[in-house]
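Researcher: I'd like a candidate sequence for this fold, 433 residues long. If you have to choose between options at a position, lean toward the conservative one.
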């Protein structure tokens, strides 16, 4: 009772709320420290230090309304770093949202009823530190982004694609064609279906010249138009990178893993398409593409595709990255030698070993496995863990040589993330001789 006389109820609410927020922030900091990915750790550290400082200001300044700042910041972080059904690694952000929101409402009510006055000196001091951190973070983010945009030559970037490669008025524009092909519903009843893919042909495409080819896959809920039609600035980037001789001219094919309305009942059934796409790719899509367009395949059979594998790459984003893992890196290593997985994996090292460390595939060279994710991407944690485990299991994969994991500061599960990943990936495949 003496304590209740000395301290107001809102002080207890603020203390409990502040402690809960800080404990969850410390848990997040420790978890990301254990993961060992520097960019993600620094990003999470900065966010959670700010949360703890705001919580301290709310408690010591006796202003519970400040917890609303934490709730407002944690909710979008939960929505961008978690995905119900696939990964809830950052569910602490949801817990912080609920706790901070409750602390705001209950603490404010008690403060009003008890006519509690704020303490200006602590609040000014703490919020000044918050402002300083925000200013410094903004300066670094803005400065790095501007520097990346102004870069005049090709090179690895974690912040943004240089503007020189995004101009819409490239004097040598490639063309985009729609290709229809016959395939089957391999994941279900095997019925005959007709599907389509988009094909990017570089400026001056010549049927008498052989071209490297990149197959590029979308994510959940999208289709073959996603990469090059919906986000046409990816075409602009291809045009400019080729025109400025940053990369070799290449053919880019964007199919879809969907087969009409098959396997859409749940996440589990949809996963079947990430495995069955292998059969469509090998049996139908590749023969359709490489019979019409000039690639390095001398013949349209297993021998022709296998002998030209070092001139063929495959990449995908989100569920397209999962499909890349299941159907290509772990399902078609004999036909491809370069791979890009953006914002997803869901492929344990054990499955990788079953498919790629067997007698048939263990001697095949892997030219490139480029892995990328945003620091706020909900696929980051599982993707990074899978990548580390797989690299440790296969001596062919050497970090810094033929494989790397790029983590983009401030990026989340969106095309801004994948546009940058494609820019970096293009530089790593089909090196100039």
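Model: Candidate sequence:
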């Amino acid at each position: 009772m003496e304590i209740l006389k000395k301290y107001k109820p809102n002080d207890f609410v603020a203390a409990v709320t502040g402690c809960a927020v800080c404990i969850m922030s410390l848990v997040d900091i420790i978890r990301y420290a254990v993961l060992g990915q520097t960019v993600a750790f620094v990003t999470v550290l900065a966010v959670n230090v700010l949360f703890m400082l705001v919580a301290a200001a709310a408690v010591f300044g006796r202003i519970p309304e400040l917890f609303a700042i934490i709730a407002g910041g944690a909710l979008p972080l939960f929505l961008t770093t978690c995905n119900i059904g696939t990964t809830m690694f950052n569910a602490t952000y949801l817990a912080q949202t609920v706790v901070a929101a409750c602390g705001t409402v209950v603490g404010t009510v008690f403060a009003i009823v008890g006519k509690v006055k704020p303490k200006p000196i602590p609040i000014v001091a703490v919020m000044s530190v918050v402002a300083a951190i925000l200013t410094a973070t903004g300066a670094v983010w803005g400065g790095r982004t501007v520097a990346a945009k102004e870069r005049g030559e090709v090179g690895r970037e974690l912040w943004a694609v240089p503007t020189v490669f995004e101009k819409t008025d490239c004097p040598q524009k490639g063309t985009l064609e729609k290709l229809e092909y016959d395939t089957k519903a391999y994941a279900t009843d095997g019925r005959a279906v007709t599907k389509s893919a988009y094909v990017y042909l570089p400026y001056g495409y010549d049927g008498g010249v052989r071209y490297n080819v990149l197959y590029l896959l979308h994510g959940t809920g999208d289709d073959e138009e996603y990469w090059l039609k919906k986000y046409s600035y990816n075409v602009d980037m291809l045009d400019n990178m080729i025109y400025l001789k940053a990369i070799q001219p290449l053919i880019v094919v964007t199919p879809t893993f969907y087969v009409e309305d098959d396997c859409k009942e749940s996440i589990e059934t949809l996963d079947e398409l990430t495995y069955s796409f292998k059969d469509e790719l090998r049996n139908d899509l590749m023969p359709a593409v490489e019979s019409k367009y000039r690639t390095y395949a001398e013949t349209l059979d297993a021998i022709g595709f296998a002998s030209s594998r070092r001139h063929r790459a495959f990449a995908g984003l989100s569920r397209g990255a999962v499909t890349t893992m299941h159907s290509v890196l772990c399902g078609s290593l004999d036909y491809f030698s370069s791979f890009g997985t953006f914002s997803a994996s869901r492929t344990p090292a054990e499955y990788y070993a079953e498919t790629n460390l067997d007698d048939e595939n263990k001697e095949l060279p892997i030219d490139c496995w480029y892995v990328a994710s945003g620091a706020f991407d909900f696929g980051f944690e599982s993707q990074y863990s899978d990548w580390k485990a797989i690299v440790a299991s296969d001596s062919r994969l050497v970090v810094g040589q033929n494989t790397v994991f790029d983590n983009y500061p401030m990026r989340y599960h969106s095309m801004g993330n994948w546009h940058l990943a494609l820019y970096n990936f293009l530089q790593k495949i089909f090196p100039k001789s």
